[in-house]
Write a structure and sequence with these properties.
There is one protein chain. It contains 16 helices and 19 strands. It is α/β, with parallel strands linked by helices. It folds into 2 domains: 3-240 and 443-464, Aldehyde Dehydrogenase, Chain A, domain 1 (3-Layer(aba) Sandwich), CATH 3.40.605; 245-433, Aldehyde Dehydrogenase, Chain A, domain 2. The longest helix has 20 residues, at 35-54. The structure holds nicotinamide-adenine-dinucleotide. Nicotinamide-adenine-dinucleotide (NAD) binds at residues 137-141, 146, 164, 166-167, 196-198, 201-202, 205, 216-218, 221, 224-225, 239-242, 273, 373, 375, 401, 439, 443-444.
């Protein structure tokens, strides 16, 4: 692998091994970039900016459509790369890891026609312009999707980009670079520099030539980036951690609530920022819900990610395995009841970072299990006695990213409005690529997707006439 700067491969002196968590084998050598590599990428992005910003939104939308097409052509290659580096089941890798990014590029391109690029407000002409050179720093859980969610609106708005993928999951990036080239997006508009957070990530956050940094990742790193970016007063958009709640009312369709909560809590082995990792249920229905959860969990086969029928692969790394294992051990010591799964290596799968899908009950709302992001296939079940208590438990978090309410629709909607969180699904409500996505509280300060997602990558100029 090589850095990709100004449309060309740039070699690195040192590399970092990328490891398949299913078996510990090395699958790639990722370049370890330096601040000088970031300088080079920023120079390329700066040079490419005026011409790209001068193209029409329609032309840029056309390029995004072409990029979506090129990514679809590479679906299998992308899915194999991502499945191998983070252990995502191949079926999920094809459908979501590799399948969603072209959808994001397409749906973002479709916004070009209706976006308010210029508006007349009284005597003023209000113009939306690109922010400039945008630094993009992303996590490993959905490596290509996280980049595309920023790249697509940034490009549509006329910005150029310097992207740094996560160390654990860089292997889809050369395929993205090939797709960008094939889509005839000019050289220098998209640049990729690989490396560690403390070296390349911090160089991006601090860089005086970068006008905005858009970050997705942990809350701790988001805070660090904000501090570093403050020195140059660059714009910072943060998409951070979560500890989202699924609230089940006493008149809910319990089977629907159970199935949807498990899917959201365990997809990608629970390594999803918006995972509903807390299920808040009426105390009177606790036993019935635990029974239903245990039965529904039988559909989640843990195994080799390359097999079509696998629903859960290994965690993305051994570090992640140890973190999740420690969380569950500590939760049990603090009094949670083990309903399913549990800590320790999985018999027959000791060769990889496999963790059993786990359900814990009687979790105290203030305990670490209920408060800290685990980022593994671990569902905590908490009980309440009345509606106000259910809402108080759901809102008892420093995070506020997603959530759900199951129950009679009007009652569920009223409760959804009282949750301090950026997204809520009510009953069958599904993820909508046009709806703004982002966090309240320490889950972040930006919004991705839809018009707000494009707006985030624009500057506003008022011209009085
Ligand atoms: P992370 O914060 O450790 O790393 C994310 C990225 O930041 C990586 O590219 C990393 O190299 C870089 N980084 C690390 N230290 C840095 C520093 N000091 N300066 C600049 N960059 C630095 O997160 P992760 O472990 O890769 O991903 C998991 C986290 O991401 C979870 O907390 C999860 O909730 C969050 N996440 C949030 C969303 C969202 O949309 N809100 C989506 C996915 C993941």
């Amino acid at each position: 692998m090589k850095h990709w700067i100004n449309g060309e491969d740039v070699p690195a002196e040192t590399t970092l091994d990328v490891v398949n968590p299913a078996n510990g084998t090395v699958v790639a050598h990722m370049p370890l970039g330096t601040p000088e590599d970031v300088d080079r990428a920023v120079a390329a992005a700066t040079k490419a900016l005026p011409a790209w910003a001068a193209t029409s939104p329609q032309e840029r939308a056309k390029r995004l459509k072409a990029l979506a097409h090129e990514l679809r052509e590479r679906n299998e290659e992308l899915a194999q790369a991502i499945s191998t580096e983070i252990g995502a089941p191949i079926s999920l890798a094809r459908a979501a890891q590799a399948g969603l990014p072209p959808l994001v590029a397409d749906s973002t391109a479709d916004l070009a026609a209706g976006f308010a690029w210029t508006e007349t407000v009284g005597t003023s002409l209000v113009v939306r312009e690109p922010v400039g050179v945008v630094g993009v720093i992303t996590p490993w859980n959905f490596p290509l999707q996280q980049i595309m969610t920023k790249l697509a609106p940034a490009l549509l708005a006329g910005n150029t980009v310097v992207a740094k993928p996560a160390e654990l999951a860089p292997t889809s990036m050369p395929i993205l670079a090939a797709a960008v080239k094939a889509a005839e997006i000019p050289d220098g508009v998209v640049n990729i520099v690989y490396g560690t957070g403390p070296v390349v990530g911090e160089a991006i956050a601090k860089h005086p030539g970068i006008d905005m940094v858009s970050f997705t990742g942990s809350t701790a790193v988001g805070k660090r980036i904000s501090v570093l970016a403050a020195e140059t007063v660059k714009r910072v958009a943060l998409e951070l951690g979560g500890k989202s709640a699924s609230v089940v009312l006493d008149d809910a369709d319990l089977q629907l609530a159970v199935e949807r909560t498990l899917t959201t809590a365990w997809t990608n082995s629970g390594q999803v920022c918006g995972a509903w990792s807390r299920m808040i249920v009426p105390a009177t229905r606790r036993d019935e819900i635990l029974d239903r959860l245990t039965k529904a969990a039988e559909d989640y086969r843990l195994g080799d990610p390359s097999e079509e029928t696998t629903r859960l692969g290994p965690l993305a790394s051994e570090t992640q395995w140890t973190r999740v294992d420690n969380h569950v051990e500590r939760g049990l010591e603090q009094g949670a009841t083990l309903v399913l799964g549990g800590p320790g290596r999985v018999p027959g799968l000791e060769h990889g970072a496999y963790f059993r899908p786990t359900i814990l009950a009687d979790v105290h709302p203030d305990s670490a299990l209920a408060q800290e992001e685990i980022f593994g296939p671990v569902l905590s079940v908490l009980t309440y006695t009345d509606e106000d208590e259910a809402i108080a438990i759901a809102n008892n978090s420093v995070y506020g990213l997603t959530g759900a309410v199951f129950g009679e629709p009007a009652r569920a909607l009223a409760i959804a409005r009282r949750l301090r969180t950026g997204q809520v699904d009510v009953n069958e409500g599904q993820f909508n690529v046009l709806a703004p996505f982002g966090g309240y509280k320490q889950s972040g300060n930006g919004r991705e997707f839809g018009y707000l997602g494009v707006e985030e990558f624009t500057e506003v100029k008022s011209i009085q006439r």
